[in-house]
């Protein structure tokens, strides 16, 4: 496992390379999230679910804002920024530059989520046969893989981060000695709270939780760790800062 403890504040990537890696990871992440959301929505009865953070935020967004065309955009943006302040609390410092970086990530990410969602909801029909259900299940799991790989890439680039992944990185290197697996599990506490609030508001309805969510809960952190080793293998963690 890469030891980042002695690399604080060091950056070996050029800015152009950092931006290129970041754009790739941003597209991977939003695309993967939408694959899990759309496949979950087009299998009936619903049993697939989406990635864990996606499920929690989408449920709370729909519970508060209703099922409208901008619910995902506002849910991901606002809840993401709330998490950025949780990160400041864990780091014991209010770093406005870092929080602004979270916002810089969240704005295009939320736009991509809404855009990809609108497209794929139109072109992907409901799964009405067993082969289609199996295919959608595989696509759902592949979406989780895209998310985990994206997390690996932009955590290593460390230019700006999604607040949830910034949370994972803080937990990973400040509290869990570099373990992506343990940090991912701990970082699922906020979306669990989001989902519980949504469940209280919309009782007894709760959407986007299923075997895909369980798959993400169990394996997303591990896939991120594997991607650290095998995807863009020469890309190392840049300027890791998890506070004092």
Secondary structure: elements and pairs:
Elements: H1 15-41, H2 52-65, H3 71-91, H4 96-123, H5 130-157, H6 163-175, H7 180-187, H8 189-202, H9 211-230
Describe the structure.
- The protein is mostly helical.
- It has one domain.
- It is built from nine helices and no strands.
- The protein has helices spanning 15-41, 52-65, 71-91, 96-123, 130-157, 163-175, 180-187, 189-202, 211-230.
- α3 runs antiparallel to α4, α3 packs parallel to α6 (163-175) and α5 crosses α9 (211-230).
- The chain is globular, with a radius of gyration of 17 Å.
- The mean pLDDT is 87.
Give a quick rundown of the structure:
Pfam families: DUF6198. The chain has 244 residues and is mainly alpha-helical.
Characteristics:
single chain; about 240 residues; 9 helices; globular; YczE/YyaS-like; transmembrane helix
Strand content: under 5%
- Give the CA-based shape: globular
**How would you characterize the largest beta sheet?**
none
Provide the domain count.
1
User: Helical proportion?
Assistant: over 70%
Structural class: mainly alpha
* Distance between the ends: 22 Å
Task: Please tell me how large the radius of gyration is.
Answer: 17 Å
Low-confidence stretches: none
The succession of helices and strands, N to C, reads HHHHHHHHH
Distinct helical segment count: 9
Average of per-residue pLDDT values: 87
Q: What is the β-strand count? A: 0
């Amino acid at each position: 496992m890469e030891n980042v403890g002695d690399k604080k504040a060091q950056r070996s990537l050029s800015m152009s390379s950092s931006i290129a890696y970041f754009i790739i990871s941003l597209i991977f992440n939003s695309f993967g999230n939408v694959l899990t959301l759309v496949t979950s929505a087009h299998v009936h009865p619903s049993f697939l679910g989406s990635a864990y953070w996606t499920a929690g935020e989408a449920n709370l967004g729909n519970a508060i804002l209703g099922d409208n065309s901008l619910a995902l955009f506002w849910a991901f943006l606002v809840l993401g920024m709330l998490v950025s302040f949780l990160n400041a609390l864990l780091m014991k410092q209010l770093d406005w530059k870092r929080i602004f970086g979270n916002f810089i990530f969240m704005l295009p990410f939320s736009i991509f989520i809404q855009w990809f969602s609108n497209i794929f909801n139109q072109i992907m029909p409901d799964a009405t046969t067993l082969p289609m259900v199996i295919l959608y299940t595989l696509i759902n799991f592949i979406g989780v893989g895209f998310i985990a790989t994206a997390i690996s890439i932009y955590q290593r680039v460390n230019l700006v981060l999604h607040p949830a992944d910034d949370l994972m990185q803080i937990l990973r290197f400040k509290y869990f000695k570099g373990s992506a697996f343990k940090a991912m599990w701990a970082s699922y506490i906020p979306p669990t709270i989001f989902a519980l609030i949504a469940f209280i508001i919309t009782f007894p309805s709760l959407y986007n939780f299923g075997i895909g969510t369980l798959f993400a809960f169990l394996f997303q952190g591990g896939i991120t760790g594997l991607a650290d080793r095998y995807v863009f293998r020469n890309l190392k963690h840049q300027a890791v800062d998890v506070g004092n």
